[in-house]
Amino acid sequence: MNEYLQELKNQDQAVRHAVGDIDWEIVSKEDTERRMKVTEILKNGEVRSAEDFYNAALIFQHGPSVDDIQLAYSLARISSLLNPDDKDTSWLCAAAWDRHMEYRKRPQWYGTQFTEQDNSEEFELYEIDETAVSDAERIASGVPTLSESKADALTIRQKILDGIL
Fold this sequence. Notes:
Helices cover 59% and strands 4% of the residues. The protein is mainly α. The chain has one domain (3-161): Serine Threonine Protein Phosphatase 5, Tetratricopeptide repeat (Alpha Horseshoe).
């Protein structure tokens, strides 16, 4: 396992789980720096284990571009091929795919992405193709069923405020 990459992933997660107000402008700058560091690690061939690919994917999952999300998905898929029983990696594959679809303005498949309703504090699932995958496939990917995700939309605002998402 690449310990430096693990530390970058820990930093990525720590800022998102901080107590209190999160300054997303600062987080965005830190995220950019982390993605640049991970890009160098990738270029140097220092991503080798399933955990390395997962850590790199999670960092790119927070990127602002379609290219970032495509890379997150690709890295997560490699991690899942190396460690097919890891539920966190399965979930990240689904979340990266959904975010990729959202960034391309297409319906998501798994139901991992939420959007705010007209600047209110209410959230709903981003548009979803309910026929793309079954609830059994969602569960196998570590994702809640579609009805559970719809119910989660009711509490998503508090999770964001608490820094969980």
